[in-house]
DNA sequence: TTGTAAGCGTTATCAC
DNA sequence: GTGATAACGCTTACAA
């Protein structure tokens, strides 16, 4: 029962209580504006004044332990490190997410993972109570989460590329978005395609999915992916440039090249121009993602815009809802995309 | 002394201890690989096995409370919200920071502030023990931090635009960087300048500082900032475009326009081209910041590259060092920049 | 309206 | 080598 009076240490609520001549309970009630507790205005003022005078700051960890909450949400990004920030999507998603979370008094902590095995780190994050909720992106299925014992009842939201069955998730229909832009090329009369996929397009479930769908789409439209015209890149402009150079050496030159992200499409255009081939007169180029900059290049790039900011906002909303209603149903949302036709495609 | 056996609740270290037939202390020692504690291999194995079987995950908040540490560092970005993510600098800094922090087992939490008064939130973050350290960027002086009672002894690192006196800080010499690019324009023979500053260039200490220095630099080189040729923008391409349009209506057309960030410089170029004025033949444009994309525009933009990723890494290193050596001296570091001359300037 | 006391789940200090 | 036991600082029934 001894009340510790730390010499140099932090001010605790006990000290505030003593200074105000009340109990710790009262201090807690006043400082947290506890509803339903009728504290006299006079007492309340005394507590507030004491807290101010002592420059009291409640200990966050003690509070977290006592309440079992942290008002923190983790955004876990799963991606081979060097590429994690190469695209604009992360900062856009963060932008929407952080703002919405802040409005609700929540904080965002960023967690980067590279290995699939690190999913256990994410589970621990939730289980240990380090965060109240987890928003994970970049995974190619929900199985890894189930294997580490997480379930739909846990405060987990997956941002995925197609609807997931069991966990709450927001899916961005990348395949559908891709179809739009490819379709635009087909509609423009193109039948001979080249393509710059993202390097792991043969291993990664989602990249493979996009690539296969692309091939199918071409096939059913009577178009073809020319031999020697599939050259992968690592999402950077430079890799797009190199890929395009190789494509231009193929026996037959494609009439259009699909850069599977905008950044590589930019490189592709530069490579063509560098080789004296004009875009779109000699060859068309289409991109993917809708980065703002695509509009300002020469030529402006045709692409599909993925509303990343919107995604971030929605993610925050769904997670916050989930935290407030732990018993709520699994929620699913699908996010659309917007075709942006510009001069790089004719 | 009662050992609680929660029905459905979390597994605690007590339960692990009971299952392994040891005390909680032993469990703690084993799980934390406590050095200097001689646990028999046999006991150790039993504990580990029990923990595994029960799927035990230590409670993060309890641990934080007991140790007084969280292994978390806050990155606080102070900026009017809409612009916080408009530039690439945030994701670049984050990129370097997160990676380095992760290597050391630290996590990054993102904190956005808009009002100067929110500095008290940041102080509370440190004081409350919610984070071990604070890296703050976007502030125009150290006074706000002192006013809320923080001092150089606290685990605070400020990323600033000029060396600070009292807090540890990493400064990026934006003024010096700017001089480099402006100097390049002067060296190219330009004497009649236009300029697109960031909107708060009359209020914000740092923006004003850059703007004034720019004017002085011109003056001492016998160059002039033409009347009607200073039009502010909000960092976006579109604002740069609008600003340039107004500049082109000025009585005398400048021979070079300085976009005080790359994004606005891009807009400026588009506006000129849209008005049938070619860059750089009719008018030169120079940018600032060194975004990767500047290299791929038409014409490629002359700019100065600020090594944001490097900054993030250095920030992590300094903060980690500070956390390991709380008594260490204030550390100061200044980060340079790299002139990138390209076709937009002749 | 205010106070007492029981947690919350660790880690850390000492005895044994 | 291992085990009690006391912090850590707060929240919150429940009692008064």
Explained architecture:
2 copies of one chain form a homodimer. In chain A, 41% of the residues lie in helices and 17% in strands. Chain A has 3 domains: 13-67, Orthogonal Bundle (434 Repressor (Amino-terminal Domain)), CATH 1.10.260.40; 72-172 and 309-335, 3-Layer(aba) Sandwich (Rossmann fold); 174-305, Response regulator (Rossmann fold). By secondary structure, chain A is an alpha/beta fold. In chain A, helix 1 (13-20) crosses helix 2 and helix 9 (174-187) runs parallel beside helix 10 (205-220). In chain A, the strands form 3 sheets. Chain A has a 6-stranded parallel beta sheet with strand order 2-1-3-4-5-11, sandwiched between helices. The longest helix of chain A has 17 residues, at 308-324. Chain A contains 13 helices and 12 strands. Chain A has helices at residues 13-20, 24-31, 41-54, 60-67, 81-84, 89-103, 119-127, 143-147, 174-187, 205-220, 237-247, 262-274, 308-324, and strands at 72-78, 107-113, 133-137, 156-160, 168-172, 192-196, 224-230, 256-259, 284-286, 303-305, 332-335, 338-340. The interface between A and B is large, with 48 and 48 residues. Strand 2 (107-113) of chain A pairs antiparallel with strand 2 (107-113) of chain B, so a sheet runs across the interface. Chain A binds a DNA duplex (16 and 16 nucleotides) through residues 1, 4, 10, 12-14, 22-26, 28-29, 32, 34, 37-40, 43, 58-59, 61-68.
């Amino acid at each position: 029962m001894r009340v510790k009076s730390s010499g140099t240490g932090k001010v605790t609520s006990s000290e505030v209580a003593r200074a105000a001549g009340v109990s710790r309970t009262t201090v807690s009630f006043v400082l947290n504006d506890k509803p339903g507790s009728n504290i006299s205005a006079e007492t309340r003022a005394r507590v507030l004044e004491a807290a101010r005078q002592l420059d009291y700051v409640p200990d966050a960890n003690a509070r977290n332990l006592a309440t079992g909450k942290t008002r923190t949400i983790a955004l876990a990004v799963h991606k081979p490190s060097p590429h994690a920030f190469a695209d604009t999507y992360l900062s856009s998603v963060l932008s929407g997410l952080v703002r919405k979370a802040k409005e609700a008094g929540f904080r965002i902590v960023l967690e980067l993972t590279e290995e699939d095995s690190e999913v256990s780190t994410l589970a621990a994050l939730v289980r240990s109570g380090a965060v109240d909720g987890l928003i994970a992106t970049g995974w190619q299925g929900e199985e890894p989460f189930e294997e580490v014992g997480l379930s739909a009842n846990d405060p987990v939201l997956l941002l995925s590329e197609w609807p997931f069955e069991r966990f709450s998730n927001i899916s961005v229909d990348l395949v559908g978005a891709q179809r739009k832009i490819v379709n635009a090329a087909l509609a423009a009369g193109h039948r001979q395609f080249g393509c710059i996929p993202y390097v792991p397009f043969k291993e990664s479930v989602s990249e493979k999915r996009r690539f296969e769908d692309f091939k199918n789409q071409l096939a059913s439209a009577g178009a073809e992916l020319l031999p020697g015209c599939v050259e992968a890149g690592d999402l950077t402009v430079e890799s797009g440039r190199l890929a395009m150079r190789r494509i231009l050496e193929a026996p037959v030159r494609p009439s259009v090249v699909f850069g599977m992200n905008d950044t590589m499409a930019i490189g592709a255009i530069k490579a063509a121009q560098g080789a004296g081939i004009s875009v779109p007169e000699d060859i068309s180029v289409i991109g993917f993602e809708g980065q703002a900059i695509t509009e300002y290049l020469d030529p402006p790039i045709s692409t599909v815009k993925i509303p990343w900011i919107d995604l971030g906002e929605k993610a925050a909303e769904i997670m916050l809802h989930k935290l407030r209603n732990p018993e709520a149903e699994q929620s699913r949302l699908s996010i659309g995309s917007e075709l942006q036709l510009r001069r790089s495609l004719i």
